[in-house]
Amino acid sequence: MGKQDTYAMREDAEKLTAIKFDKEDEPVDTYYITKLGQGASICTCWAGGRWCRHKQMIDIFRKAEAMNTGRRYSFDKKKWFAAPKVEEL
Questions:
Q1: Are 73 and 60 in contact (CB under 8 A)?
Q2: What separation in angstroms does the CA of 89 have from each of 65, 69, 83, 86?
Q3: CA gap 78, 86 in Å, rounded
Q4: Which whole number is the average pLDDT over 34-61?
């Protein structure tokens, strides 16, 4: 985990997906957060049963209405970044 890592989050009915990007904006890891009901969840990261950063970011992304948008968030810097522009073919 580096100080220049950013994350994007996606959500569907069964799970949330946190995608970690490096400073070159390349995806370097993907974590899946499974919804267990009653607000409980578990993440596939090494701290998954605990309160990991990926689970902490769920509320951050929801409050910013950034879920499923591609916007990036730096957990270490507490800063938002725009979604990268997609080149059209």
A1: yes
A2: 28, 20, 18, 9
A3: 24
A4: 84
Q: Which of 3, 6, 9 is nearest to 74 (CA)?
A: 6
**More confident call, 58 vs 38:** 58
pTM: 0.84
Instruction: Determine the average pLDDT of the residues in 53-80.
Output: 95
Show the tokens assigned to 64: 């910013």
- Distance between CA 39 and CA 58 in Å, rounded? 11
Closest by CA to 74, choosing from 11, 1, 17, is: 1
> Are 77 and 1 a contacting pair, CB within 8 Å?
no
CB 8 within 8 A of CB 77: no
pLDDT of residue 59: 92
Calculate mean pLDDT across residues 21-27: 90
**End-to-end CA separation in angstroms for the chain:** 33
